[in-house]
Amino acid sequence: MYLSLVGQYPQQTNYTRIIIFTVLLVSLGSLLLVTVSQIIVKIRERNTDGVLECIPILITNLVTMIKIVNLNINRELFKKLYDLVIEEWITLVVNDDVRTLNKVTKQGSKIAYLYRSCLLTSLLFFALLPLMSPFLDIVLPLNETRLRQQIFKLNYLVDGDEYFYYIYFHLVWSSTVIVVIIVSVDSSYMLITHHVCGLFAVCGNQINRIMENINTNTNNIAEQGDLYRRFRNCIIIHEKALMFYELVEKMNRNSFLLQIGLSFMSISVTAVQAVMNLDQPREALRIGLFFGAQKFHLFFISLPGQKLVDHSLELSDNVCGSKWYQTPVKMQKMLHMIQIRSSVPCTLSAGGLYDMNIENFGMIFKSCMSYFTMLMSMRES
């Protein structure tokens, strides 16, 4: 449903996709235009605080553009992944394998649902904050009109009070487009990555099941042939998991590099903004929601990478913990191939410079706080 909203569902027609993609880019471009205009004005006024206030908005807009453009550029790769997922669910016939894959992918679905719910809820609160003053003017009127604050302070080249609602609806629409694109693209990334994790889990489950039922004293040719067939099927599942991983890595590698770099800058600047506005509760709440959403986004695009590392290494543990030494030599060679490859973790990277995992998320967040301290020092000086 979400992919359909952003024109990236594989079964949509090219005509529908192009129309939706154009509308989204125009919406993002309109917000980008007024943001850059505000930055130029604040630079001319030598207002550092004003420039810092616009940078997180600019970066969030750029990150969103990167997400949707990257998915659109790699739509053939994404369609291939989508078709392979469907094919895999059809070809898995053993109930234990289906249950294993279903268990892992359901975890991904729950994480994606939590991610979408939190960001959409934050958007709702974010959008309602500017309406507090007009609402209080109606419910608890004063002798004067309360000060009205927009979602973002941007340059529209018109009177902000006179065109308050026009500006407000444009900002709400643009913010909604940004959040819907982010949750759509990231949710699909989470689900596909968990599908890869599920294939690794299926492979490990097959190895454990084979080893539990293996009969080391049998000379029955039919039984040995069945054992060989099951091992071969396990290798095929492992190769499919690796193929899925390589496609996901190829599709997101460059996009993640830009997203991580921009998010790093945005979190640092937003933290400075939050400190700058501690004396204004409503403004501090707005910036706090934005800051929390940025950290939340960075954490949840790092989490699937960690899950992939864990499941790919767990397969190696399954092989080591099995009774591989009781299998025929031919089977041992097959197991050895799986063990060698699974001992190297499957990591999703940002341009090969940054691995997407929880440990690096913690490190980059600490670095953001260091840059926050530096920016505060520069501002005070």
Account of the protein in words:
The protein has eleven helices and two strands, in the order ααααααααααββα. By secondary structure, the chain is mostly helical. Strands 1-2 form a two-stranded antiparallel ribbon. Helix 2 (14-44) crosses helix 7, helix 7 (164-213) runs parallel beside helix 9 and helix 9 (281-321) packs antiparallel against helix 10 (329-342). The model has no long low-confidence stretch (mean pLDDT 82).
Question: How do the strands and helices of this protein lay out in sequence?
Answer:
Layout: H1 2-5, H2 14-44, H3 48-73, H4 75-91, H5 95-128, H6 132-139, H7 164-213, H8 221-276, H9 281-321, H10 329-342, E1 349-350, E2 354-355, H11 358-380
Antiparallel strand pairs: 1-2
Helix pairs in contact: 2-3, 2-7, 3-7, 3-8, 4-8, 5-7, 5-9, 7-8, 7-9, 8-9, 8-10, 8-11, 9-10, 9-11
